[in-house]
């Protein structure tokens, strides 16, 4: 990673710089430091592109999961309609359709939850890496770069919160669906 190498170069310049007696201050070549800072600014967009790729990948995975979920549900409905020929077959078809719907929804929920966990772990690892870089290499001297890291960290936190919220809503929708399905099953048992 080019940015880390440049930061190590700054650290080496500071470590080897001549000091002013009794002040704790050092003398460094401003041009040399400014050139390194320019290179860091040049390299940072690549890191930001990686964060954008992670966000886009998360959205793609969620869209695929939703499409698969809808396709399975549509298939289950088609199978249930094809089985409706007489009363005995109708009852069995309804039971089978309900079971397929339950299994399908559970599978879709598990897929969604796995996707959320996967995206959250990627975002968490990237967030940790950004915090480590921030803690190790940036101080008061690089306020602008620190702001960039804080913005990225905030975006990652927001993305993680969105994932957790989506997972929570999925769980709540599943619980509501299960509660609605229980009275329908009792009605069928009464028939």
Automatic annotation (TrEMBL):
It comes from the Bacteria. Residues 181-191 have a biased composition (Basic and acidic residues). Residues 170-191 are annotated as: Disordered. This is ATPase. It comes from Hominibacterium faecale. The lineage of its organism: Bacteria, Bacillati, Bacillota, Clostridia, Peptostreptococcales.
């Amino acid at each position: 990673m080019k940015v880390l190498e440049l930061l190590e170069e700054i650290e080496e310049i500071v470590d080897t710089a001549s000091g002013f007696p009794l002040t704790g201050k050092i003398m460094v070549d401003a041009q040399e430091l400014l050139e390194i800072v320019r290179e860091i600014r040049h390299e940072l967009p690549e890191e930001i592109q990686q964060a954008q790729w992670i966000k886009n990948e998360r959205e793609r995975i969620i869209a695929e999961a939703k499409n698969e979920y809808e396709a399975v549900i549509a298939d289950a409905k088609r199978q249930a309609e094809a089985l409706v020929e007489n009363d005995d077959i109708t009852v069995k078809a309804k039971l089978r359709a309900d079971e397929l719907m339950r299994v399908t929804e559970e599978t879709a929920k598990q897929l969604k939850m796995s996707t959320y966990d996967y995206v959250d772990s990627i975002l968490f690892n990237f967030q940790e890496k950004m915090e480590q870089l921030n803690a190790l290499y940036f101080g008061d001297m690089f306020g602008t770069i620190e702001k960039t890291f804080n913005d990225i960290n905030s975006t990652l936190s927001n993305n993680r919160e969105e994932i957790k919220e989506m997972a929570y809503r999925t769980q709540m929708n599943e619980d509501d669906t299960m509660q609605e399905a229980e009275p329908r099953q009792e009605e069928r048992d009464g028939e």
